[in-house]
């Protein structure tokens, strides 16, 4: 978990809604639900919204847009709305007919937006459901994911887990360089035993139970490294041989047991890729600071195996929601290689028979609306969300607490959006946290209010547990914040 200043463009802001879709009374006719044109709605009943995610009907060639699409929707049983594109997968105009019903478009307030969602007012998630697992409702777009990260568990970071016995004997000069380096220092036998004990105790079934019992949180996002699949299969390259085996059984327990039992969805974040996508501790690089992922086709092939193995393994698991295909890539990763990886991963995951959510992440330095337009998305790709991270820390040095609390201005973005990381930390200084307790609580309240209302896919707090909670007030541990009344979750 790391962040760069330009990401603040998408942090703590209301979302303007531009989609126009269908409601029950419009479903017998048709309604335009938005894509790359912005003409008037052809239905006299007005503008409506529905979630972006409901299953598409078979796309059909369109001779004249938007009238032809409108007519096709009106004559197709179950069609509630349509999207059209001038230049589809074959270079021809296409209609995408959508089933389901929605609700009236909510009024847009005066707050300027940073990102824009193609979804409208929608049922907001809790961890209860009328039947079946909550994951199904999140995947369909019926409810919003409200998540917490299980940071430091199956992919360790010293700053999160410094109290763990895993770090015994590791000096301050060495403890921040990632799992590869830690295993080099510990040796295979000792290191594997240390990681096993850490994984067994850092997150347990009791944590998932406590998360579910908040009554609001319905998802966990769990970071993993590329070596986790070597517990059950081979993978291109040899870098994974260095890491401690044994993490996969804990991921299995989370997805197939605990999350099913407590009705919590699971999103896996492919946090560490062979070759490293950012050179930072959480990507477990061979050498800290070295970014080599896109320089080798073997690395890319390893990442594809990483993604498709997990998708295939959990395709029938009721709690499995989806995969973040890469966490926080940065230059010098080649942007063309990155986007092609996203496309190939999407196709290969689909080929496994799993239509889970696939999240794509832009460069850490390019999380503004203009750059997000280049990410893969609907209608060519279904269940494809964009993930961004937002922190009020780096780039806010020297600002007062009141200035941090003031929402920034921004642009608009129209793809399904998931805010994969946020926290209640603030600009690093000698104190490292808001001193005014009311302001500290307000930092959490404001972020929750914005993210609950306006992120299409949902959000995930970073993180559930942090060693700092044992010695001081911290904005990085959700369980500490909830237990001590600093953060009140709202549905």
TrEMBL record:
Alphabetized PROSITE patterns for the sequence: GLYCOSYL_HYDROL_F5 (PS00659)
From which residue to which does the signal peptide run?
1-22
Q: Which InterPro entries match?
A: Apple (IPR000177), GH (IPR017853), Glyco_hydro_5_CS (IPR018087), Glycosyl_hydrolase_5 (IPR050386), Pan_app (IPR003609)
Q: Which organism is it from?
A: Phytophthora sojae (strain P6497) (Soybean stem and root rot agent)
Report the EC number(s), separated by commas if there are several: 3.2.1.58
Task: Name a biological process GO annotation.
Answer: proteolysis
Q: Which Pfam families match?
A: PAN_4
Q: Name one GO molecular function term.
A: glucan exo-1,3-beta-glucosidase activity
* Record field: catalytic activity: Successive hydrolysis of beta-D-glucose units from the non-reducing ends of (1->3)-beta-D-glucans, releasing alpha-glucose
Keyword check for Aminoacyl-tRNA synthetase, yes or no. no
How is this protein named in the record?
Answer: glucan 1,3-beta-glucosidase
Which residues belong to any copy of the Apple domain? Answer: 43-117
Q: Which SUPFAM superfamilies match?
A: (Trans)glycosidases
Give a Gene Ontology cellular component term annotated to this protein.
Answer: extracellular region
Keyword Transferase appears in the UniProt entry: no
Q: Which UniProt keywords apply?
A: Cell wall biogenesis/degradation, Disulfide bond, Glycoprotein, Glycosidase, Hydrolase, Repeat, Signal
């Amino acid at each position: 978990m790391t962040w760069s200043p330009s990401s603040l463009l998408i942090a703590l802001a209301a979302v303007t809604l531009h989609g126009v879709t269908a409601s029950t009374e419009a479903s017998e006719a048709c309604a335009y639900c938005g894509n790359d044109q912005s003409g008037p709605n052809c239905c006299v009943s007005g503008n409506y919204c529905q979630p972006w995610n409901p299953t598409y009907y078979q796309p059909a060639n369109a001779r004249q847009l938007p009238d032809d699409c409108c007519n096709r929707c009106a004559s197709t049983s179950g069609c509630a709305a349509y999207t059209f594109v001038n230049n589809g997968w074959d270079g021809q105009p296409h209609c995408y007919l959508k089933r389901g019903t929605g609700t009236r478009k909510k009024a847009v307030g005066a707050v300027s937006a940073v990102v824009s969602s193609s979804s409208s007012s929608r049922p907001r998630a809790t961890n209860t459901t009328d039947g079946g697992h909550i994951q199904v409702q999140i995947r369909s777009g019926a409810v919003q994911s409200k998540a917490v990260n299980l940071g430091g568990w199956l992919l360790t970071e010293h700053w999160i887990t410094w109290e763990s016995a895993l770090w015994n004997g590791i000096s301050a000069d060495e403890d921040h360089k990632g799992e590869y380096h830690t295993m080099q220092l510990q040796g295979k036998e000792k290191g594997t035993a240390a990681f096993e004990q850490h994984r067994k105790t850092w997150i347990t079934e009791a944590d998932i139970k406590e998360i579910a019992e908040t009554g609001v949180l319905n998802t966990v996002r769990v970071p993993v490294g590329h070596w986790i699949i070597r517990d059950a299969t081979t993978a291109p390259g040899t870098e994974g041989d260095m890491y401690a085996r044994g993490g996969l059984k804990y991921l299995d327990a989370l997805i197939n047991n605990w999350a099913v039992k407590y009705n919590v969805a699971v999103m896996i974040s492919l946090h560490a890729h062979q070759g490293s996508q950012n050179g930072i501790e959480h990507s477990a690089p061979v050498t800290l600071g070295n970014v080599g992922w896109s320089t080798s086709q073997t690395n890319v092939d390893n990442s594809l195996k990483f993604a498709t193995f997990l998708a295939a393994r959990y395709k029938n698991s009721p709690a499995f929601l989806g995969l973040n295909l890469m966490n926080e890539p940065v230059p010098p990763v080649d942007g063309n290689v990155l986007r092609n990886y996203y496309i190939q991963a999407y196709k290969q995951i689909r080929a496994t028979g799993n239509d889970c959510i696939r999240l794509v992440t832009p460069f850490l330095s390019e999380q503004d609306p203009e750059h997000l337009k280049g990410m893969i998305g609907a209608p060519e790709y279904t269940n494809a969300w964009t993930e961004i991270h937002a922190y009020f820390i780096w780039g806010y040095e020297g600002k007062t607490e009141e200035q941090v609390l003031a929402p920034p201005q921004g642009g608009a973005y129209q793809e399904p959006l998931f805010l994969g990381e946020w926290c209640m930390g603030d600009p690093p200084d000698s104190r490292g946290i808001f001193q005014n307790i009311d302001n500290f609580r307000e930092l959490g309240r404001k972020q929750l209010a914005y993210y609950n209302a306006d992120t299409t896919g949902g959000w995930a707090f970073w993180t559930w547990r942090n060693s700092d909670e044992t010695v001081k007030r911290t904005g990085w541990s959700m369980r500490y914040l909830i237990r001590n009344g600093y953060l009140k979750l709202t549905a």
